[in-house]
Design goal:
- The radius of gyration is 38 Å and the shape is extended.
- The protein folds into four domains: 93 residues, Alpha-Beta Plaits, CATH 3.30.70; 133 residues, no CATH class; 104 residues, 2-Layer Sandwich (Alpha-Beta Plaits), CATH 3.30.70; 284 residues, no CATH class.
- 29% of the residues are buried.
- It has 20 helices and 15 strands.
- By secondary structure, it is α+β, with helices and mostly antiparallel strands.
- The strands form four sheets. Strands 1, 2, 3, 10, 11 and 12 form a six-stranded antiparallel sheet that branches.
Length: 651
Amino acid sequence: MQKAIIGVHESYQDTIIATLHEAGIMEIINIWDRASDISALLHEAERTPDIDRCTEELQKVTVILDALHGSHDTTPRSIREMLFPRPVPKIPVRKKDFSELCREREAVTSGADDALAIRRELESLRERIGRREITRETAGYLSPLDIDFRHLGESACLCTIPVSAPPEAWNSVQAALRDAGGDELVIATAEMRDRYIAVITTLRENREAVQKILRDRRIAVLDYDPVSGRPADVIAEIDAEIVALEEQEKALKARLTEIDDRFATPLLTVHEELGIEKVRMLSRMNFGKTNHTVFIEGWVAKKNAAACEKLCLGVTDGHAFCSFADPGDDGDVPIVYDNPPWLRPFELITTMFARPNYDEIDPTFFTAPLLIIFFALMLGDAVYGLFIVLLGALLKNGLGRVSPSMRDMSIILMVAGAATVVSGILQGGYMGDVLPRFFGIQPPFVIFNALKSPIEFLQIALIIGVLQINLGLLLAAHQNLRKKRMRLLMHEQLSWFLIQPGAAVMIFEFFGWGAPGTLLRIPAYAAALIGVALVLSDKGLLGLFDFTGFLGDWLSYARLLALALATGGIAMTVNILTQMVSGDHPVMMVAAVAVFVIGQTFNFVLQTLGAFIHSLRLQFVEFFGKFYSGGGKEFAPFFVRRDRTELQGGE
């Protein structure tokens, strides 16, 4: 990454902004928000009226799009549509200046602004339908009392209020009402389902006292619109009115859908173009100026520096200059991955933990193969691996077509599945022991099997573990050596390189795996003592915990064996149960098939998740813990994001 400063004559400002925006190779930073080498020599750019006008133009389109929202049902109608969404076709557009965009906006919205009135009418209609439905519900409650709605509410002398209340609350509320209204209170009640329905009539002067009692949270005052007639008549009248209102609503929706069909695409197109134009206008506030020169500061990946300079000089006819410099001690340097195409999907795994700092090694190159190997060893079933390959292929051709992260995940799944197929063949795993148990076929090409040779498998796991841990130490040593941190190099990496040969000799002698000669034993133990001294001299007695921690990290790789045993063991158990359930009767055969399918599916899902989680854990804890901290800032280029449009003919 390099710090870039671009100077350009003010007459080319809009051209170079558009060019950089489409190229997406530079992260523009605000000269005035941070310490800059040149900000003291410049003055700030003024906010132009075009920014406010662009905001207004954008808002005019937005309100129409909001009015059209929901006119078409975009919910996937099937699982196929959900898993295999169609990419949105992009509309080709040409380069336009702001005034032309404003004229285009005017032309588009003038034909579609009827949508605003229709939307307002629809909302009013829905509100009216809602009110009528509430009144209908109240009429249903009052049906047993058969009271005319024109008697409800207030008259010159009386106040009549319909309410509902649960039985356990009604007696106490009724007593309180009679105390408040005395002989001048009339209550008509009816019991409906689990509630009492009551119509309370009192003199107007007693209204406040009665309403105060009815504020009890257990009491519901029934709402209604001003109508007249008995409940049955009101219900019939409202039902007919709602049918008519729904017909009006359907007609309005049809008009809205017609407008959407005609104008949605041009509206979305001009909305996106205006949004892009607004971003470009706002970007000017990040620049510095002299009388006739505009200065742009930002970050450019070192590999793109030459292309950036060529681009700037080309679109300005040489009326620009570019300066690039290494970031030095700047701690706010953004990070951009620089991996070959085949490795880029695995950047998702590194980012899941944290992006590397600017001065750190990108671990993706080391993480990718190790993650796949660990996953394949832990799952170790060829059929399960084939299922994962198919799942990845479906994901890639479905959601992967519209989501870059899903595309990366699908590639990881396919690679992991293919590796699992190979591992399953080498371990003889085909949904457990399906081949020998049900078909009498011994799997070919078997080299090792966790169930039959667990000690051999454990040895492989521990050898892989010590290799990966030492790889982490080597990477840490490289970083410390590059930064000339010799003390850390000696105490945190060299010490463990010295300790391990002595530890290996001790383990071989303890388990009787071999008897190293004196020429090997003495130097190994001497080196180990030096390593122990380096650790203890740095951390004192607390360094003892480093020894148990290192041992724990190493033994953590035994989970490779544990997961492999779990996969094969549970699959074998399912096969045994299937064999026990099966019989000559067709019903038993169906039951056996159900046991097999459900059991193997459960094992497949459980062990796939387990293998992925534990593989990640070995990378993030045991491996990254030796050399990697992460926490880098993502490179955020000034880049136009076109979801609906595609620029034709360049800038």
